[in-house]
Design a protein that fits this description.
Two copies of one chain form a homodimer. With about 180 residues, chain A is an alpha+beta fold. In chain A, about 25% of the residues lie in helices and about 45% in strands. The longest helix of chain A is centred in the C-terminal third of the chain and has 15 residues.
């Protein structure tokens, strides 16, 4: 499944939160997400632009593979494969046995909204700041996904600098 | 977690099934298990005696890593790490993306019983025949595990040839 999204660095999440409330849109979820990223014994995911992650939230744990990013006019597209796993500690142990190594941890609080089919995430990322992500629903083609993301962004008036960097890359770059 | 078990090749499962019924012990479960085994891109699990498996039953799917076998007087001991995964097709896709390769499939019907804390499995393995496995409950030390397995085997009168080979190894050896 391809994932299309735009990520915008914002000074504060407050203006968008206020705008959503004024439109009568309430958060669908409010979660703390703790991510552990792994690197492969056969290739450096930093160079191949892949990612392997175990994510824990109050709802459970997931294991995700992300393919290389394809940048299209500020929108980030990449393949994403997700499975739910339980217990996550054992999944982590298996990865270590298979030669994978832990590279970094990313922790954030994420408030999600649904707007016109898109997923809006208001993220506070530990050590990095505030970000807004607008993600197209799965199954959309590239053109429709980009158009929809642009329309929703304009409607919500999200101002700020776009980035195609992942939180993992930002954290590794700060080191 | 260490797993201690003895595996016995039998001509038929019928005598043991009758013996268990006469003792008033009923099967706890009766499942069809479909296993897919994978090999690593960094080392040959056939040589290192490790195993990586996705198992599907009617109850769901699991992902298992098994460490090298330690043979102790016909009892097979090895480390086993298991997580439940969902959906299993995506787990398989992730493994392929990470460079793992499918090696073989093992399919069997397994009837399980609990006898004095041990797990007894009556297996009909496609292409291989009938086997009885007696596994010690987790948490037991080596000595207690071996003694318990021997006692239960005697009590149930399971006759046949012991093997420390896994079904995977038997299937690969037949090729």
């Amino acid at each position: 499944m391809m994932e299309y999204e735009v990520k915008i660095r914002v000074g504060s999440l407050l203006p968008l939160r206020t705008r959503l409330a004024s439109l009568g849109i309430r958060p669908a979820k409010n979660l703390t997400e703790k991510d552990t990223y792994f690197n492969s014994p056969t290739r450096d995911f930093g160079r191949t632009d892949e990612a392997l992650r175990i994510r824990t939230t109050d709802e459970g744990a997931s294991f995700t593979y992300k393919g290389p990013k394809i940048g299209i006019a500020g929108v980030k597209a990449r393949e994403e494969l997700i499975v739910s796993v339980d217990p996550k500690e054992t999944m982590e142990e298996i990865l270590l046995r298979l030669g994978f190594t832990r590279t970094a941890a990313v922790e954030k609080t994420r408030e999600t909204y649904r707007v016109e089919g898109t997923y809006i995430a208001l993220d506070e990322v530990k050590g990095l700041g505030s970000f807004v992500e607008i993600e197209a629903p799965p199954g959309l083609g590239e053109k429709e996904a980009i158009a929809l993301i642009g329309r929703v962004r304009e409607e919500l008036g999200v101002e700020g600098e776009e980035t195609t960097l992942s939180y993992l890359e930002m954290i590794l770059a700060k080191r």
